[in-house]
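Margin note: ligand = flavin-adenine dinucleotide.
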Amino acid sequence: MAEYETFTHDVLVIGAGGAGLRAAIEASAAGVSVGLVCKSLLGKAHTVMAEGGIAAALANVDDRDNWKVHFADTMRGGQYVNNWRMAELHAKEAPDRVRELEAWGAMFDRTADGRILQRNFGGHRYPRLAHVGDRTGLEMIRTLQDHGIHRGVDVHMECTIVRLLRDGDRVVGAFGYERERGRFRLFRAGAVVLATGGIGRAFKITSNSWEYTGDGHTLAYDAGAELMDMEFVQFHPTGMVWPPSVRGILVTEGVRGEGGVLRNREGRRFMFDDIPEPYRAQTADNEEEGWRYTQGDKTARRPPELLTRDHVSRCIVRELKAGRGSEHGGVYLDISWITERLPNAAEHIKKKLPSMYHQFKQLADIDITKEPMEVGPTTHYIMGGVRVNGDTQMSTVPGLFAAGECAAGINGANRLGGNSLSDLLVFGKRAGEHAATFARANKPGAIDASQVDEAARQAVEPFGRGPEGEGPYQVQYALQAMMQDLVGIVRNEDEMQRALAGLTELGARARRVGVGGHREYNPGWHAALDLHNLMTVATAVTRSALERRESRGGHFREDYPDKSAAFGSVNVVVRKEPDGGMAVSRAAIPEMPQELKRIIEEMK
Ligand SMILES: Cc1cc2nc3c(=O)[nH]c(=O)nc-3n(C[C@H](O)[C@H](O)[C@H](O)COP(=O)(O)OP(=O)(O)OC[C@H]3O[C@@H](n4cnc5c(N)ncnc54)[C@H](O)[C@@H]3O)c2cc1C
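Resulting structure:
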């Protein structure tokens, strides 16, 4: 084996967002040595972008809330294909994780009597999102980082992992490169936690940043782990649509939680036109009641703008298809109308939604206290990911754990807003704890030199082809455009078969990709290496979406527009075959205990 700079940790955490940081803190607290690797600078993870808040049944604003209601809301939102054990643990443990964050120094917005303030969000029956204005993620990551650094976690910034290393079945390390110098790094580890976030960059219009190319999903898949629910991609209903340079950037659901309404070009609040049956009893049937709900009236039901994201996105698409869209191909989201109701509305909006105010002022020259925003769906989140044990977060490969957005299970077919930040805290902690236990219980494995040398050889291949090869950005763009068009919000067999054929062609192009220059800070090279990940997750999404012949949550098929009972009891799983092909299968969802079934029935 060639000589590489080598680091040894009991637990190696890949990804420094909320899940990775929380895992690192917990593993370190268990007394093992911890390394934390991230693709960009510490603090720049996706988590920092989170706006609306952390969902936890603290019951500070509405004392009717408790873990059972949160559990039932999460299962209903996920349309009952969630890993019910994860949904249960999440609902039970989220309040403690939020209070712990507060004890570590997070400064939340407050109720009048000094408790953590909670806001309304789509699909949550009661105000449940602990928040800091619309900059909750920033406060969360700042707090976790401070705490993690003081715990003695070793951080390896701007280092991208390209391969997990195995000894037999077990994962024993990872191999990657430094972004700045292009030098390789070898990590030996007793256990590895993947916390690499999402896959949004597999689509053209997305709220996700450049980092979210499905790396953790692909690392796990290549190492033999199963991926689950990959067809369930969340298209958030409200991304910016204009100007083109900002298309896809998120407009937080907090706008609707604070009273913002959706209108089409005719000025109609179209969300009242289509309220799904399971939500009818909980949803306001007139504008007045909806407004009262957003102002904390406990006798009122929530406005239809706060229905689940999958449904709101589809309603927007329906308006667009019917020619009732806004000037630049979206619909109108209006919070300025509350000036009719509140005396100090402009100040109130700026206080509650400071980032949204500045985002629209600076990027679109729109004053949201005076005029409506134009919004449309944007690829936001993937419910699918590494298949894990609900209690330990270990994948189907020993020694390999996953937490946060790159893991599957808790959200089922659709995630409720705010449930990601709480997922990171609950399952980041669990992953860190169990990875530390695994590392302690098992002797260090051996590093296989041939795996390392092969990973290094493959990584530098694009230089051999040089600038005459295919351009990595051209292939990336073609992939994103195709996924957006053919495997987007509304899907059908014919288009997805075309996408599969397109993926085969793009795979051939990806293998011909070449880059010029050298290894020191070379973004073209990094983009070339990301392509393998994008291709893998795009294929997994398409193959899984073809397999699920029904519509459920984030997955809508116009050729199978209804839910099917048969698919309601299975998850779709993909894994890598020995010949490199992708096997797709259905896995039966384990029977839910009576006690949990009863809770769901009671909350209907
Ligand atoms: C604009 C926006 C607003 C949001 N608002 C909310 C909200 O209000 N509430 C909520 O619950 N959710 C929200 N979400 C979703 C939520 O922020 C994310 O799902 C969550 O932060 C993901 O956290 P994570 O820890 O799993 O990963 P991330 O925070 O995405 O971090 C991933 C980490 O992995 C690293 N990484 C990736 N690949 C590699 C690699 N190959 N090698 C090394 N490191 C790697 C990255 O550098 C990064 O450090 C929002 C998302 C966006 C985009």
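The first helix runs from residue 18 to 29.
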